[in-house]
Amino acid sequence: MTTTTIAMDGPAASGKSTVGRLLAEKLDYVMLDTGFMYRAVTLAALNAGLDLADETAVTHLATSLTLDVQSAAGHEDGRHYTALLNGQDVTWDLRTPEVDANVSLVASYVGVRQEMVKRQREFGLRGNIVMVGRDIGTVVMPDAPLKLYITASAEERARRRWRDRQAQGHPDSFETILADVKRRDDYDSHRQHSPLKPAPDAIIIDTTGQSVEEVVDNIIEKLPVNSVR
Ligand code: CDP
Questions:
Q1: How far apart (Å, rounded) are the C-alpha atoms in residues 50 and 105?
Q2: What is the Å distance from ligand 1's center to 13 Cα?
Q3: How much is the pLDDT for 226?
Q4: Domains along the chain?
Q5: What mean pLDDT, rounded, does the chain reach?
Q6: Among the listed residues 107, 20, 136, the one whose alpha carbon sits nearest the alpha carbon of residue 69
Q7: 3-class SS of residue 84
Q8: Over residues 184-190, mean pLDDT
Q9: 111-122, pLDDT tens digit by residue?
Q10: How many whole angstroms separate alpha carbon 23 and alpha carbon 165?
Q11: Average pLDDT of the segment spanning 55-71
């Protein structure tokens, strides 16, 4: 059996986790959406009433958390996976505007990143995995045989995120979501440690105007021949 890691990075709301999930399903791989980890640390820090600017306290908290993912089986609410923080299902709590507003700061802390990258690599050892994030091709899995950078215009990404939020009954305005997407992209791209950027050998896929199916089929064509089981 061939084991392979597919590294998938890209800016906020680029559809990475939707594409990653469908791709993993088609290849019979597992998908790890690493963003869930940074969101879970942020949620835990908010719940604990920490000052999020206190890097030492947030980093200390990050190392103490139990984080896990399970399949979405048994839930009919549109989730891609179930996220567990200290054993509790926090899948939707990770997607609030408050977490969106604070996650990039938490993800900029080097100690938080070191801890999460260690956990991501352990997860990656299982092989046959689509790992989704910001720094997978550049830092977490630099030897991945296939690296993809999934992007789309900021307006299209904000529109997709707005539609998802509407479908879930949240009234956030398109303008607020667009501003958050642009702010996070800017912050994530300019941070000191592991900034968001395509690996030099990543294939850049602009999904503006493309359906998820089209994007996934396009990726499958690019797979190294012997990696499809
Ligand atoms: O789903 P969306 O693209 O909006 O965000 P996400 O993938 O859940 O990531 C949330 C935030 O976590 C990002 O804005 C980054 O600040 C951070 N992140 C990161 O720094 N490195 C990763 N590998 C994944 C996420």
A1: 13
A2: 9
A3: 52
A4: 5-214 (3.40.50.300)
A5: 93
A6: 20
A7: strand
A8: 96
A9: 999 999 999 999
A10: 23
A11: 97
